[in-house]
Amino acid sequence: MRSNALSRLDRTHPSLPALAALLLFTALAGCPGAQLVSPPDPTPAADAAPPPPVQAVGHPSSELIPRATFFGNPERANVQISPDGKYLSWLAPREGVLNVWIAPVDELDEARAVTTDTARPVHQYFWAFDKKHLLYLQDQAGDEDFHVYAVDVTTAGAPAVDLTPLDKVRAFVMGVSHKQPKTILVGLNDRDPQYHDVYSVDLASGARTQVLENTEYAGFLVDDDYNVRFGVAMLPDGSSVVTELRPKRNKAAYTIEIPAGDTMTTNVEGFDRSGRNLYLVDSRGRDTGALFSVNLATGKAKLLAEDARADVGSVMTHPTKNTVQAVSFDYDKVSWKVLDRTIQKDFDALAEVAPGDFSVASRTLDDKTWVVAFRSDVQPASYYLWNRRAKRATFLFSSRPALDGLPLARMHPKLIPTRDGLTLVSYLTLPPASDPDGDGVADSAGPLVLLVHGGPWARDDWGYSGLVQMLANRGYAVLQVNFRGSTGFGKAYVNAGDKEWGKKMHEDLLDAVAWAVEAKVAPADRIGIMGGSYGGYATLAGLTLTPKVFACGVDIVGPSNLLTLIKSIPPYWAPMIAIFKTRMGDWTTPEGEAALQAVSPITHVGAIERPLLIGQGKNDPRVNQAESDQIVNAMKERGIPVTYVLFPDEGHGFHRPENSLAFFAVTEAFLSAHLGGLYQPLGADAFAGSTMQVRAGREGIPGMPTP
Q1: What is the pLDDT of residues 566-588, one digit of tens each?
Q2: Model pTM score
Q3: Catalytic residues
């Protein structure tokens, strides 16, 4: 948990107890006890005849939108304004690597880079309140052992200072407050890998002072005065309890007991300015998570905002008053409920500025100036400076201006019924050739990619996606499905996914495929499946548990063996082990172990009969490289073709744009071979700067240059 101040910034560590509602694989790392296998030999045996190269069913085309337009560095992204309104900041390339840049708010042509990372892009940064420092987080080669760095922006060329210079330690920012501008709170697990202690860090000197030694809590709630007010403990049955740590004299500690079935949809948001009232997203006694204000003295809860179809999404609070001003909900598209009438005119006027959804990305401490981000299905983020007094918007930047005017495809929400009566909130994107009038109804059937989100406790939403747009530009329809277990649709929907990996969760995907065939979006024999993390598992499950449904699959950092996967939970996630037992199954019992083994793709590897491409980061702390190695080895032992690419400097996904460009170059050529879409030719520049290693199945990539 974070202080109220930090909750208004980029979130660098998950809220608790909704921690488990994030992607499962943010919890997983390598496990020395897992049965690992040796990496596959990248070269065939001397006496083995190389398989013939795969020929593309589609064909290369130089008329396509270049991959770099979708996956290269954005021109500018994550625009923020300093709390005092003096500077604008953003992420932009410096020598080809994303770094933080700043400029005086009225002299943007004087921009300068204030971070100088050369190997890995910066993604998470935010302003301190001391009018001097900017903070950012960085790991090494995807290992997710994040360090917190501070940069003095008032001194040109000032080097970044590592505030948490500890090896094999994961740091996160717990509190940044305008009432404590010279310090921040961080969590560090250097004393005990299972628990993060709370430290105060002086921004000027870097000195750390322990505030609280943690021996039992998975997270904390801190107020703007840096009082550690509540601790969150996870219980063996998967439930949690939020407990007041320093109750007033003669007062019993205030507690919030959260049953296991509500942990995904109930979480504490923060305090009001008085500190006497708690903002709580709560699904207890109801289905969807609604926002309440709870008086800590009386326990009385006041309902602030609710939606019968969707959980609370974002909560917008005043930067100093801590009053809730607006709340978002996202069923098939985002909608806002304004609670503070002083911002109603702002929201009304902003709705006319640009198409798509908008959000307040950053704001000054006096609340006179906002940075507002707009996003639609055919437009990545575009940023405006909003003058609240004049009600005037000034355009700043588009994150990818090279996309302006290009023929991008619309994304259409679709409600798809399941065989047992649920409704799948899904999104269909059709290539312009099959939907020339843009009404979301296919005029002609063509190849389709079922793109499965990670998590599984996450969701797909409406808006721009570079991957979706690339696939549509290559001639594929793209279907994204919020299968049961996805978040945002109430606790009954999340809980319907409990212990349903490879079963009803997979049946939901099959029902969506059947819907697409019946709607004549795609013929049954030209549907591929693709996804990352849990989506990678779904891909492997699709090719093993239902081997004749999909024409091919692309697995990105997906687990192949749920037993070795779950054993790789790192120490600092141990307090939440009961949640995984509740949601996935109890692998410590013979019945639970057998159930997980039965839905593990590695168990059914011999059933694979359709082409498979696997992408993996060597340093992935969530889904260990062994998850890909073992299924690749098992396929090779059975003579089943597989293409496997490994990135030595990546973790859970591909963050360096050079690696993203290389992987998606391989992906679009692979899909063309088996689904028949177009692909951009694989020239030598397709892999420039990438560390990609083809560990198996080079011949499975049409047009792949000879090494």
Answers
A1: 988 777 777 778 889 999 999 99
A2: 0.93
A3: 533, 620, 652
